[in-house]
Write a structure and sequence with these properties.
Two copies of one chain form a homodimer. By secondary structure, chain A is α+β, with helices and mostly antiparallel strands. The first copy, chain A, has helices at 17-22, 43-52, 72-79, 127-137, 159-167, 212-222, 235-240, 276-285, and strands spanning 4-5, 27-31, 34-39, 54-58, 64-68, 92-94, 97-98, 104-106, 109-114, 117-121, 143-145, 149-155, 179-184, 187-192, 201-207, 228-231, 289-296, 308-312, 315-326, 331-339, 348-353, 356-363. Chains A, B: Residues 289-366 form the Aminomethyltransferase C-terminal domain.
Chain lengths: 368, 368
């Protein structure tokens, strides 16, 4: 029997938890000290449905760090090597955030609400503490806090149809990594074209938890003929899509360049960024290891609950950190960090899985 | 069926996880993004055993923030309103840590290893990010990092006997909230008399995860006639003992005074402390609500997974955040935060539990 999750106030519920329970959630993880569903029917059944219909995801665990005030833009630029000087209201940008050594602290989406107001929609680390302490140490004129905002995602090939029925036809014209303020039941919501799948869709930033259940219910009644279901980020699909998971595929030990995120490091222009000097050095020398996608031979591998060592004939050359059997590609798909000498597309390596050593092939691109 | 916990690299394993699995763990929570066992046989069976024998607990999730360097003492004092100017090497002190408004960020034990070297043994928040960013903002000469240190607790009435068999008779003379460096297998470990139960015992700060399994195995073979078992912090016993849980009974919204921790706030002398000015104000005015213990009428209440509203005849006066049926006291024991007008010992109130409203009586002291 796999261990159950003991739920307490500390593993926070979301505005959607009662609906998620009623929809028959069967697995959870804890993400930003909050409940994040991982499985409803089965990971494979959820995967097929995500690729063919439309799902509503409780991703309230993507907590927001709100930064507002005269020095908000300056503080947000200190957090990331991505140059935000041209960022416009209405944009939401993927922004790797680093410490003073260039180590990844989080890989959030930053939403620009006003010239002096931002939401940082975080991955799994208490970035709030980092941002607050920098603001105090540098005596900046900003407010930094966690607002009552809970993202709800609509993902899948029918996402546009569902969003249009609830938020109006304007939803269809939202561009990738842009948002519009669209009304539901008389209240405007930030609706962004983004999300943690390759199937397309939206993330709705639900301000004020009391709107959570009415919005959830409206999506399900509007989408009954679209076969809308409760879903969640799907392990198989996100590996096929090469979507990295902070804490799984990368940690504070890794630079953005190691994570394949060098294109987001405008370190010459992003002059306020903490860690800029360290990243200038990294950019000049290039990373010594980098994220790669590995196709692992044989039948379905067991769950990857700790890094699996990857070897070449010369010895260890990296690790696999996420892996799953892909029904669509008929192979095990995986994400790992591979040393420079072995990271070329097509290199054959061996992965030490709990089911024994397995052959594997390096890919530069993911499957989707 | 209660949802299972989906385990990945992100919900980190500990050096003891394989042993914990082999011992038959049946429930987990995630604490500091790491696995923390919550149940082995059953919460009640674990409770009776904890009170009568001795248990070994994997509390590696109490991660350490190491602070070292010329300004280490200065930085650690910035984190807490407790006056650390007299703290000696060999002491480990309970140190509430607060933000600039006096809100609780964590309630760790701080261990003084050398004049310029500390471990902060944290509750459930990424205090590392707070401490690192303060050090950067104030340009302090310190190193701040998470070392490879995993606490293992020995708790229960036979803890002294077990510790003495593995670490020698010197273990018996360790005073409360002090530590000694004692050898196991040729390696010295920090062994402190502390732990998250009222049954007495030790926390061993296991440096270098490779020592984890040999130490675990030595404790189990030395203690077989003491009925040693794998255990974990026990919900019933910790509520009986009035031990607060950060994230459950208190959050960033609460001051130390609200948490009943005013005695640790030496705000007049702890002059480096961030949040000191706010806490001087709080100390002068007194808190408006405070932690109390409530005896809840009737049979066993369901698990407390979100705050339960507490009412007097005049309306809402607070909330209960931890609750369990106590076999030894024959009542429901609980911890909550109660407004000033209703917090006097003996006040009768009503608690909105998921099993319906229940009468309750306020206690100033816990049961153990």
């Amino acid at each position: 029997m796999p261990p159950v999750l003991s739920i307490s106030r500390r593993t926070r519920r979301t505005p959607f938890t009662d609906r998620v329970s009623a929809a028959g959630v069967s697995g959870y993880t804890v993400y930003n000290r909050m409940l994040l569903p991982t499985v409803f029917r089965s990971v494979v059944e959820d995967y097929r449905h995500l690729k063919s219909a439309v799902q509503v995801w409780d991703v309230a665990c993507e907590r927001q760090v709100e930064v507002r005030g005269p020095q908000a833009a300056e503080l947000v630029q200190m957090l990331t090597p991505r140059d935000l000087s041209g960022m416009q209201i209405g944009q939401c940008l993927y922004t790797p955030m680093v410490d003073e050594t260039g180590g990844m602290l989080n890989d959030p989406v930053t939403v620009k609400l006003e010239e002096d107001r931002y939401w940082i929609s975080i991955a799994d680390s208490d970035l709030l503490l980092w941002v607050k302490a920098l603001a105090i140490g540098y005596r900046m004129t900003v407010d930094v806090f966690e607002p009552d905002v809970s993202p709800l995602a609509i993902q899948g090939p029918r996402a546009d149809d569902l969003a249009a029925r609830v938020f109006g036809e304007a939803a269809r014209s939202i561009r990738f990594f842009r948002y519009k303020r669209l009304e539901f039941d008389g209240t405007p919501f930030v609706v962004a074209r983004s999300g943690y799948s390759k199937q397309g869709g939206f993330e709705i930033y639900v301000e004020d938890g009391r709107h959570g259940e009415p919005l959830w219910d409206a999506l399900f009644s509007a989408g009954s003929d679209l076969d809308v279901r409760a879903g969640c980020p799907n392990l198989i699909e996100r590996i096929e899509g090469g979507m990295l998971s902070y804490g799984n595929d990368m940690t504070q030990a890794n630079t953005p360049h190691e994570c394949g995120l060098g294109r987001f490091c405008d370190t010459r222009s992003a002059i306020g960024c903490v860690g800029r000097d360290a990243l200038l050095r990294v950019a000049a020398e290039g990373p010594l290891r980098q994220i790669r996608h590995l196709e692992i031979d044989g039948d379905a591998v067991p769950p990857c609950t700790e890094p699996w060592v990857v070897r070449s004939e010369e010895g260890p050359v990296g690790q696999v950190t996420s892996a799953a059997w892909s029904p669509d590609f008929g192979t095990n798909v995986s994400i790992g960090m591979i040393d420079r000498e072995a990271w070329v597309e097509g290199t054959r390596l061996e992965v030490a899985t709990p089911a024994g050593p397995r052959g594997a092939v390096v890919r530069e691109k993911p499957w989707l």
